[in-house]
Design goal:
- The longest helix has 16 residues, at 673-688.
- The protein is globular.
- Strands 3-2-1-7-18 form a 5-stranded parallel sheet.
- The chain is α/β, with parallel strands linked by helices.
- Helix 21 packs parallel to helix 24.
- It has 26 helices and 39 strands.
- Bound molecules: flavin-adenine dinucleotide.
- Flavin-adenine dinucleotide binds at residues 6-7, 9-12, 31-34, 41-42, 44-45, 79-80, 111-113, 130-131, 159, 246, 249, 280-282, 297-300, 302.
Length: 816
């Protein structure tokens, strides 16, 4: 047996060593055009960032080891140019000498991997892709040599996320440009926003829904031109927009290439020629859930496939059992993991599913040092089979995703998850492990014990007249809630059940869904017919209200450690509070208690692992009159610092409390450019004078808040027609007078630019930065069929009650 292998890294080296373990006599020759066989591709980004200090640590296996231990003839710097199927030969060029030779095979394994997708102009100095050690060397060298400060990472998949983290670690300014609205394809949007928050918290600027069209370079640096027309300037750009299977050899030899662009193989990895096998990133695999061909360029599958190909060649009946796409990546302090299908994929295939969320601690809450996890389970509504899972959090994410991936592989259902007996001691887990919890919640849904509503149903349910019942504590409610929600803490519900309307649909929510479940059951058993639990509660819903551009507070949070001013370093914390492992509102409750005993002017430092704490802390300070100093990431922890005011704090007025009447309220009814500009100029002026300003957008005014791109939402014909007829966003508005088929508007915009008058989008951004509240009228949204996804980020929704509540504390109330 003469076995030739093309490609000597993950799939190729795995096939070669397995083949040797099955046969002492076979002649095994492995060709690779690179310099290093079987190196640690997956460590490249961390070598660039310096976390892997020694370059040699990447060279897991040397050619000598393969020769000595496995008697494999390793030919590096050897490029296979052609496969001659008739004579069962390959043509190989030695890249060092330029010599070409032919090698005969009995069996041939192709493991040529994949190549990064490119963008015009990428071959200029300072623009890199990352696939092998020489490329990693070049990037490291370039940064050191040029002292690069600004970087743009194009592509927000896992390699883009890894590179963003490592460039940030090296002190570079990092912007990530990603063509979709959400980072990382294996995540659904409501999970991806948690990753967005983490990236922003660590100083990464995100440009989502933006495509990089081309790169250019001049004396001032590299310019990345986006499809929106915007240009990002930088010193270094990384192109991480995905990979394409390397199939030229196979295609030229007439082997079958599939619709997804990979080599087609059977379950034994045999290509369309019985003597040729193919494995790894170059092939199409069958998706475990959908049964369709797909591309999954990951190290685990490549290694297993190499082994299966060798098995089959040496007479074993090994078969590849499809791919789940199980993956995990670290993003600063978070682990982001997924297995199986996303909702998007299931929807496209018409596969019926339901989903649930659990927000859990990595281990028992009473034992110190735990961290939070947001978990999502997607399961079949017909038989409860697990179809996919996504988890984001600190410790313990890896083990939970692996348990779910294993359960999925074994064909288990959510009912089986209830019964999994998982290891428990307080340092490692909980008596009811988060995996069991997912099983309980999903089984409750399928058994009909609890109806659910989802984060994306909120607007629709509001329009249909549903009452939202918030059963969290007063503190949690005041830190943020669904607008117009009714508030009855779960512990008061049984005494106040008569306050809850019985004749309207009811959506109950709490922080994560557990207290709401208890409330739902109490209500259902008391005769309430239409009760739903908002799955994942406020923790799942709130991040979906993510703002598009970072607020000044987020910018402050994003300030990296090394940029902290020396003065702030000097402030000694009088009290340190450890709130790690506590779920919301735990950290805030603990903070509240400790702050009471704090001396005036003293600083308190608190560490927490609840991801929501990053936004809760500034909000708590605002409400209680404490000074917000900073919040930073330290591994999986958030470290926040606040100062108690010198005099007794005067809390910001809250709903119901008597407040000073100097706020401003503006009803924006018009969508004429000039009128809307005037309203934003007034709003910004008032905000600059320290006044609280609320702008309520109703009827035509609502168009101001629309995104300029169509959102991916389902609509009826009438709603679609409304959408077409009305201006889409601030850039499309026209003057109320002298519009002259758009000429007047264009002229006005040009004059405004010449005179340095800010454009309307800039005025809107400034208003948001200044904390002006922009409220979209829910009644108008309903009439015009405008969905929340169609509005720009950072917008609240509200009805007339919301408007009146603000108007009552205002001394100026304008209708424009
Ligand atoms: P490769 O490992 O790419 O090997 C292919 C080899 O074939 C190359 O050395 C190439 O030079 C050679 N070759 C191609 N054509 C020829 C030819 N004609 N003649 C000779 N030689 C040829 N996966 C994970 O699961 N987890 C991770 O954390 C992870 N991190 C990654 C980080 C980075 C930066 C990158 C780039 C990839 C990462 N991956 C990760 C993906 C993983 O590395 C790949 O899925 C895996 O290496 C694919 O194995 P393969 O054998 O198909 O191809």
């Amino acid at each position: 047996m003469r076995l030739l292998i093309v490609g000597g890294v993950a799939g190729g080296a795995s096939a070669a060593t397995r083949a040797r373990r099955l046969s002492n006599d076979a002649e095994i020759v492995m060709f690779d055009r690179g310099k290093y066989p079987s190196y640690a591709v997956c460590g490249l980004a961390y070598y660039i960032g310096g976390e892997i200090e020694e370059r040699d640590d990447l060279l897991v296996v040397t050619p000598d080891l393969l020769r000595n231990r496995f008697a494999i003839d390793v030919r590096m710097r050897s490029e296979v140019r052609r496969i001659l199927r008739d004579s069962r030969e390959i043509e190989v060029e030695n890249l060092d000498t330029g010599e070409t030779c032919r090698e005969r095979y009995d069996k041939l394994i192709l493991a040529p991997g994949a190549a990064p997708v490119e963008v015009p102009g990428y071959e200029i100095e300072g623009v890199f892709t990352l696939r092998d050690i020489p490329q990693a060397d070049r990037i490291k060298d370039y940064i050191a040599r040029t002292q690069a400060k600004r970087s743009v990472v194009v592509g927000g998949g896992y390699i883009g996320v890894e590179m963003a983290e490592n460039l940030r670690r090296m002190g570079l300014d990092v912007s990530v440009v990603h063509s979709h609205e959400y980072l990382m394809r294996p995540l659904d949007p409501e999970m991806a926003v948690l990753l967005h928050q983490e990236m922003k918290l660590n100083g990464v600027k995100l440009f989502l829904g933006a495509k990089a069209d081309s790169f250019s370079r001049d004396d001032s640096g590299i310019h990345v031109r986006l499809s929106s027309g915007r240009t990002l300037d930088c010193d270094l750009a990384m192109l991480c927009i995905g990979v394409r299977p390397t199939v030229d050899l196979a295609r030229d030899a007439g082997l079958t290439i599939g619709k997804r662009g990979g080599i087609v193989v059977d379950e034994h990895m045999v290509a369309s020629d019985p003597n040729i096998y193919a494995v790894g990133d170059a092939i199409e695999v069958v998706d475990f859930v959908t049964g369709e061909n797909t591309l999954v360029p990951l190290g685990g599958p490549a290694n297993r496939q190499g082994r299966i190909a060798a098995d089959h060649i040496f007479g074993r009946d090994s078969a590849y059992r499809k791919t789940q796409g199980t993956a995990i990546v670290r993003a600063f302090g978070l682990a982001v993991a997924a297995t199986g299908c996303t909702e998007k994929v299931l929807k496209e295939r018409g596969i019926a599913y339901e989903k649930c969320y659990v927000h859990a601690a990595s281990h028992a809450g009473y034992y110190p040092g735990g961290s939070s996890m947001a978990m999502k389970l997607i399961f079949s509504t017909t038989d409860g089979r697990i179809l996919g899972a996504q988890i984001i959090g600190g410790d313990g994410v890896d083990k939970r995703i692996d348990v779910l991936a294993t359960a999925m592989r074994a064909g288990m259902t959510v009912f089986d998850l209830e019964h999994l007996e998982l290891a428990y001691a307080p340092q490692y887990g909980s008596a009811k492990d988060p995996i069991n919890m997912l099983g309980f919640v999903a089984s409750n849904i399928l058994r009909g014990d609890m109806k659910v509503a989802h984060w994306h149903d909120v607007d629709d349910l509001k329009r249909k007249g549903a009452v939202f019942l918030d059963v969290r504590t007063k503190d949690e409610f005041e830190l943020g809630h669904i607008s117009d929600a009714m508030h009855i803490p779960v512990d008061d519900l049984r005494n106040r059940i008569s306050d809850v309307p019985k004749d309207r649909p009811l959506v109950v929510y709490c922080g994560s869904g557990l207290r709401a479940y208890n409330a739902c059951r109490a209500l259902m058993l008391s005769g309430f017919a239409d009760v739903r639990n908002l799955t994942g509660g406020w923790h799942t819903y709130e991040p979906t209200l993510e703002k598009e551009s970072p607020s000044p507070k987020e910018e402050a949070m994003a300030t990296p450690k090394q940029e902290k001013s020396p003065a702030s370093e000097e402030v000694q914390a009088a009290v340190r509070v450890d709130a790690c492992g506590l779920q919301c509102p735990g950290p805030i409750v603990k903070l509240n208690k400790k702050a009471k005993d704090l001396d005036a002017g003293a600083v308190l430092e608190i560490s927490a692992t609840d991801p929501g704490f990053a936004t809760d802390l500034p909000a708590w300070c605002e409400r209680t009159g404490h000074e917000f100093l900073s919040i930073e990431r330290d591994g999986a922890k958030l470290i926040g610092r606040i100062r108690k005011p010198a005099a007794e704090a005067k809390p910001a007025p809250t709903a119901g409390a008597a407040a000073e009447k100097n706020d401003k309220t503006i009803v924006v009814f018009s969508n004429d450019l000039d009128r809307v500009m005037a309203s934003f100029i007034i709003a910004n002026g008032a905000a600059a004078m320290g006044r609280k300003v609320t702008m309520f957008f109703t009827f035509w005014g609502l168009n101001v808040l629309r995104k300029d791109r169509a959102a991916d939402v389902e609509k009826g014909l009438v709603d679609r027609m409304f959408g077409w007829m009305m201006p889409r966003g601030a850039k499309k508005l026209k003057l109320s007078k002298m519009n002259m088929a758009g000429m007047g508007t264009a002229m006005m915009k040009r004059v405004m630019k010449q005179k340095n008058v800010q454009s309307l989008p800039d005025l809107i951004a400034l208003a948001m930065e200044q904390g002006v509240r922009l409220v979209a009228c829910t009644m108008t949204m309903d009439i015009m069929g405008i969905k929340r996804e169609e509005l720009i980020g950072g917008i609240e929704e509200g009805g007339v009650a919301t408007y009146l509540a603000h108007a009552e504390t205002s001394d100026v109330n304008l209708f424009i």
